[in-house]
């Protein structure tokens, strides 16, 4: 990376770091994972892929950063879980000896495709749109302006969207009537 690109990345990182840190703090709340480290790892990956990110639209870049941050968080959770359960080699031996595979955590089984399909099923449409805008990095106020709704209403919509997604993606839970397409 030349000096110009390096300066561009510094501006890129400086502009996006506060938003990433807010999301990281919410993800890491009380979980023993340092939000600063999570943001640093996300920006490190952005640095390695900066040549591809530079030409993308801001929404796509925000989604890429959010996805990378979430994936890094899940990696940390998996690593901590492995540390709690013992060394991976020991676990494989234990599983082979008992013949019982370790049950996967539910969130480990939700694929990106499942998640995207669930977002598409959000009903009514304003829940889906509010969720997409928020996932792209917009704040409640900007979403409210774009959807011409009060900020409090946007907050309620996002809460309803999260609850509906949780219900759709949790095994054994039936979707709520009137909120999710069957």
Would you write up a description of this structure?
With 182 residues, the chain is mostly helical. It contains 10 helices and no strands. The chain has helices at residues 3-28, 35-48, 50-53, 58-85, 88-98, 106-109, 112-120, 125-135, 140-147, 151-169.
- Shape label: globular
Q: Tell me the major beta sheet.
A: none
The termini sit apart by 49 Å
Number of strands: 0
The residue fraction in helices comes out at over 70%
Tell me the Rg in angstroms. 19 Å
Summarize model confidence as the mean pLDDT.
78
Identify low-pLDDT runs. 88-103, 173-182
- Coarse structural class: mainly alpha
Count of individual helical segments: 10
Strand content: under 5%
List the helices and strands in order. HHHHHHHHHH
Report a brief summary of the structure.
The protein has 182 residues and is mostly helical. It is built from 10 helices and no strands.
List keywords for this structure.
single chain, 182 residues, mainly alpha, 0% strand
Chart the SSEs and their pairings.
Layout: H1 3-28, H2 35-48, H3 50-53, H4 58-85, H5 88-98, H6 106-109, H7 112-120, H8 125-135, H9 140-147, H10 151-169
Helix pairs in contact: 1-2, 1-4, 2-4, 7-10, 8-10, 9-10
């Amino acid at each position: 990376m030349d000096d110009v690109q390096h300066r561009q990345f510094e501006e890129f990182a400086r502009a996006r770091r506060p938003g990433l840190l807010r999301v990281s703090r919410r993800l890491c709340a009380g979980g023993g994972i340092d939000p600063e480290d999570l943001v640093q790892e996300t920006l490190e990956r952005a640095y390695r892929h900066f040549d591809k990110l530079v030409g993308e639209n801001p929404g796509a870049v925000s989604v890429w950063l959010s996805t990378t941050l979430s994936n890094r968080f899940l990696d940390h959770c998996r690593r901590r879980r492995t540390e709690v359960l013992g060394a991976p080699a020991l676990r494989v031996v234990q599983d082979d000896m008992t013949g019982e595979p370790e049950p996967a955590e539910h969130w480990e089984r939700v694929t990106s495709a499942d998640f995207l399909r669930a977002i598409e099923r959000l009903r009514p449409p304003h829940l889906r749109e509010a969720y997409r805008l928020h996932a792209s990095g917009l704040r409640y106020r900007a979403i409210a302006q774009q959807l011409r709704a009060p900020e409090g209403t946007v907050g309620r919509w996002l809460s309803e969207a999260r609850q509906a997604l949780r219900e759709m993606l949790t095994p054994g839970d039936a979707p709520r009537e009137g909120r999710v397409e069957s």
